[in-house]
Amino acid sequence: MPDSFTRLCILMSDTAANVTTTLPALMRLRSQARGFSFLPRQPIRSLLSGKHASRIRGRGLDFEELRHYRIGDDVRTIDWKVTNRTGKPHVRVYTEERDRPCFVVVDQRSSMFFGSRLKMKSVAAAEVAALASWRVLGVADRIGGLVFNETTTASTRPERSERCVMQWLGQIQRFNAALVEPPAERKTADLSLANVLQQTEQLCPHDYLIVLVSDFAGWSADAAKRLRRLTRHNDLIAVHISDPLERELPTGRSFVVSDGESQLEVDANQLGDKFATSFDESVATIETELQHLGVPVIPIHTAAEVGPQIRSAIGKLEGTR
């Protein structure tokens, strides 16, 4: 059994890992990338296969079943050997085998550097990206992405290789580590969420599966417009990262909040209900617009491990189809 000093070191190490992530930590998530799928290789009616199946160019067809002919079936799919043998018309049904890259867009802005429970939102977002990347690579599909903060972006072109995933996760880790820098040392913010979505559109012209991981701070009409353009030729999944304290302030006391430069004392009793209502309305607005576009929303919070949340959320969404 470890002594007190060893236990303290382990605790400090775990705490630090939940404030910022590391490349080894993102690599270790490879073993947890199972039991869910962001992939287009699910059955054609699956939630995550996309809402516009016909726009995805296939690389081939997989035989699915042999069944009786139905009015409206393409006569070219009739299996004449079986039809002659049984005396009844039968058709061969195929499922499209799709080949499209997965592109993960990860938010690492200052608004993501917040967490009141298990980990920071920025760390949770990095873990979602890592799990999605390892899962896609695990079935030999192409994976790449774009990570952004208020001032810059970095992108990795989708490839079907471990080297590409390592490069991509390394970029995420560097952006994540930069969040601990004092605000005074950061560049002036000039990138909006709409700007990032516009850049994503240039990188993903068509036939992509895009996974957008963000807290959606700075949502605007322009961002909604850019997202709408993205969904015209691509399938998109939104992963909404949040922290419990963003909705529910602790009651019965006042506390001090800071942005790293200034501080403000807040009375939770006075702001509690208004705070919750404001958060709920903001989230509802964003989710309503996303749902109007047919974009599935996967909620992830910072109070629990990310992997089980993804598996549970995707299971529930698929169950509604």
Topology:
Blueprint: H1 4-19, H2 23-28, E1 58-68, H3 80-86, E2 90-98, E3 102-107, H4 121-138, E4 143-148, E5 153-159, H5 162-177, H6 193-203, E6 209-214, H7 221-233, E7 235-242, E8 254-258, E9 263-267, H8 268-292, E10 297-301, H9 306-319
Parallel strand pairs: 3-4, 3-6, 6-7, 7-10
Antiparallel strand pairs: 1-2, 4-5, 8-9
Helix pairs in contact: 4-5, 6-7
List keywords for this structure.
single chain; Rossmann fold; 2 domains; 6-stranded mixed sheet; two-stranded antiparallel ribbon; 39% helix
- First-last Cα distance: 50 Å
SSE pattern: HHEHEEHEEHHEHEEEHEH
Shape: elongated
Largest sheet: 6 strands, mixed
CATH fold naming of the largest domain: Rossmann fold
Query: Per DSSP, what share of the residues sits in E-state strands of 2 or more residues?
Result: 15-25%
Detailed description of the structure:
- Residues 1-14 and 40-60 have low confidence and may be disordered.
- Helix 7 links the parallel strand 6 and strand 7.
- The protein folds into two domains: 21-39 and 102-319, Rossmann fold; 58-98, no CATH class.
- It has a six-stranded mixed sheet with strand order 5-4-3-6-7-10, sandwiched between helices. A two-stranded antiparallel sheet has the order 1-2.
- The protein has nine helices and ten strands.
- The radius of gyration is 23 Å and the shape is elongated.
- It starts with a helix and ends with a helix.
- The chain has helices at residues 4-19, 23-28, 80-86, 121-138, 162-177, 193-203, 221-233, 268-292, 306-319, and strands at 58-68, 90-98, 102-107, 143-148, 153-159, 209-214, 235-242, 254-258, 263-267, 297-301.
